[in-house]
């Protein structure tokens, strides 16, 4: 009977905390629903850029045969079972344009066909005549998938043309220093941003601790301004975030991590990102009466930062539209997604702040919006009298 009494008491207490209960119950189904909405066809399209320099070869009947054009046609035929495209093949006018697209993550692979490509597919031709080059960021998992798919089509195409496999010279050129990175180094950019993301726990718990202890109400009686309280909390949390980032980076450097770009630029990216996470933390504090409740609710935004920003798991770029050569993807609404991409460019490709201006601008604007929203909500719900 004591067990039954404890059970009834626990049920009543759980029912009195509907917010925590609802978050526990609906979070997993919500993530499943979001994944289905994000991936309605269950397929990922891999953008492949082609620099077709193939000059073609004149046949005995006088017709110009272009193996490059035919190969591009074969690549475009690669689809899923439902007919949706697997490879999105786009031509580029020069290598610089293609590499720029690779750097801004709007494509996974650049395929370069040499001028002698058609000639090398003639019977008796020397295989060293043709150079087929794959260019990409070897640290990106989607490059490997795209390269495997393209290479499979390429080998089938050569075998179809000649009736037998032919070892045409194929080279792979890594973008930046991506070919010299260890698997550990590939994860470091996301891990550093994850150190900042953990402020989503620290910030609301710090505020909830003040509210739970009654300190916040006593401070309000002293005619404390909203700016004073929020400014003090924010500065403290930024210091915590920077300290966590520096400690994580220091450990990574001691364990063999190498940065191709300026480390100070990466730290600046982390500082800006911390404001967005603190803003989310202030929003969480608006719905938290206790430290425990703040910790529980903070897991909700934490999961979004982890699963959809690329900090811990690679996510496909679901492009919504493009601005010039820059693609805008669905998950770009998360400031940390821009921070991760910026750090990858700095650490792997040796980029400076000038090379990550788009990510820096997007991160700054979104961080300002997230932080402003958190401050506004907190003032409306917790500091109404000021």
Relevant terms:
386 residues, alpha/beta, abc type-2 transporter like fold, five-stranded mixed sheet, 9 strands, elongated
Structural class by helix and strand composition: alpha/beta
Work out the helicity level: 55-70%
SSE string: HHEEEHEHEHEHEHHHHHHEEHH
Q: What is the total domain count?
A: 2
What overall geometry do the principal axes of the alpha carbons give? elongated
Q: Order the strands across the largest sheet as they lie in space.
A: 4-1-5-6-7
Radius of gyration: 27 Å
Compute the separation of the termini in Å: 51 Å
Number of helices: 14
Unreliable parts: none
Number of strands: 9
**Taking all residues together, what is the mean pLDDT?**
82
Share of β-strand residues: 5-15%
Major beta sheet, specifics? 5 strands, mixed
Secondary structure topology:
Elements: H1 2-15, H2 18-38, E1 46-52, E2 57-58, E3 64-65, H3 67-76, E4 87-91, H4 95-103, E5 109-113, H5 117-120, E6 131-136, H6 141-162, E7 169-174, H7 183-197, H8 199-213, H9 215-221, H10 226-254, H11 263-285, H12 291-308, E8 319-323, E9 326-329, H13 335-349, H14 357-381
Parallel strand pairs: 1-4, 1-5, 6-7
Antiparallel strand pairs: 2-3, 5-6, 8-9
Helix pairs in contact: 2-12, 7-10, 7-11, 7-13, 8-10, 8-11, 8-12, 10-11, 11-12, 11-13, 11-14, 13-14
Question: Can you walk me through this structure?
Answer:
The protein is an alpha/beta fold and 386 residues long. It folds into two domains: 46-180, abc type-2 transporter like fold (3-Layer(aba) Sandwich); 183-381, no CATH class. It is built from 14 helices and nine strands. The chain has helices spanning 2-15, 18-38, 67-76, 95-103, 117-120, 141-162, 183-197, 199-213, 215-221, 226-254, 263-285, 291-308, 335-349, 357-381, and strands at 46-52, 57-58, 64-65, 87-91, 109-113, 131-136, 169-174, 319-323, 326-329. The strands form three sheets. A five-stranded mixed beta sheet has the order 4-1-5-6-7, sandwiched between helices. Helix 7 packs across helix 11, helix 7 (183-197) runs antiparallel to helix 13 and helix 10 crosses helix 11 (263-285). The protein is elongated.
């Amino acid at each position: 009977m004591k067990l039954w009494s404890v059970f009834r008491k626990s049920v009543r207490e759980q029912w009195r905390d509907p917010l925590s209960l609802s978050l526990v119950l609906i979070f997993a189904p919500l993530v499943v629903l979001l994944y289905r909405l994000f991936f309605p066809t269950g397929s990922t399209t891999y953008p492949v850029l082609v620099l077709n320099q193939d000059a073609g070869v004149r046949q005995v009947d006088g017709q110009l045969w272009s193996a490059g054009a035919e190969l591009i046609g074969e690549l475009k035929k690669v689809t899923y079972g439902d007919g949706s495209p697997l490879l999105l093949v786009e031509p580029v006018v020069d290598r610089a344009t293609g590499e720029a697209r690779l750097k801004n993550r709007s494509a996974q692979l650049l395929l370069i066909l040499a001028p002698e490509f058609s000639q090398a597919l003639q019977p008796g031709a020397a295989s060293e005549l043709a150079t087929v080059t794959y260019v990409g960021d070897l640290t990106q998992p989607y490059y490997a998938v795209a390269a495997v798919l393209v290479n499979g089509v390429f080998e089938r195409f050569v075998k179809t043309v000649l009736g037998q496999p032919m070892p045409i010279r194929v080279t792979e050129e890594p973008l930046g220093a991506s070919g010299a990175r260890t698997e550990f180094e590939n994860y470091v950019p996301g891990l550093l941003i994850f150190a900042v993301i953990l402020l989503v726990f620290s910030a609301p718990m710090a505020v909830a601790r003040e509210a739970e202890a009654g300190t916040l109400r006593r401070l309000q009686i002293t005619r404390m301004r909203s700016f004073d309280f929020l400014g003090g909390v924010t500065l403290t949390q930024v210091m915590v975030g920077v300290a966590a980032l520096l400690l994580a980076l220091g450990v990574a450097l001691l364990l063999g991590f190498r940065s191709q770009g300026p480390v100070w630029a990466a730290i600046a990216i982390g500082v800006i990102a911390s404001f967005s996470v603190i803003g989310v933390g202030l929003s969480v504090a608006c719905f938290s009466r206790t430290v425990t409740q703040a910790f529980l609710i903070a897991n909700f935004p934490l999961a979004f930062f982890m699963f959809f920003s690329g900090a811990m798991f690679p996510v496909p770029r679901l492009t919504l539209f493009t601005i010039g050569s820059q693609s805008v993807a669905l998950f770009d609404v998360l400031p940390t997604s821009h921070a991760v991409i910026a750090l990858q460019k700095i650490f792997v490709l040796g980029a400076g702040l000038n090379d990550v201006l788009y990510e820096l601008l997007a991160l700054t604007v979104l961080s300002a919006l997230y932080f402003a929203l958190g401050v506004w909500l907190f003032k409306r719900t917790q500091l109404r009298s000021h």
